[in-house]
Design brief:
With about 160 residues, the protein is of the alpha+beta class. It contains six helices and four strands. The chain has a four-stranded mixed beta sheet with strand order 1-3-4-2, with helices on both faces. A hairpin with a 2-residue loop joins strand 3 and strand 4. Helix 2 packs parallel to helix 5 and helix 3 packs across helix 4. The radius of gyration is 20 Å and the shape is globular.
Length: about 160
Amino acid sequence: MIRFAFRVALLLATTAGLAVVAVVPTAHADNRRFNSSVVQNVYTVQRQAGCTNDLTVSPQLLLAAEWHAKDLMGNRGLGGDIGSDGSTPQQRADNAGFRGAVAQTVAIHPALAISGIELINLWYHNPAYHAIMADCGFTKIGVWSENSLDRTVVVAVYGRPD
């Protein structure tokens, strides 16, 4: 009788655990603090490169970054700058209302989350991404991140206003 009760309790605990897991994917994380830390880390990289300009968040670049991050989350075959509709970072920024040249850095991490240190190290040690982050001409930025149980996507769009 005790074994039967133990099995029932185990079954109930397991079922309850699965119910909790089933609810988690529908929750939306608030990544504002993480995204702000990415902006601060890029500002630090610019300072290390000798930049004296301010780096401010642009609502238009934020929107372009959001569009691409959500596109990358929804289309797992994508892996970089080009969107599922064939759009480029410049086209997305233009469509969001930004006037000027842009560049973009992307991270696709196979886990629920990525730390700011992991992200900045990933981008810092990629020569092309480091060059973008350290470019003093980029005075505007937009950062967006999305999470699922098995994937985190971070997109930063850097702008040089006209």
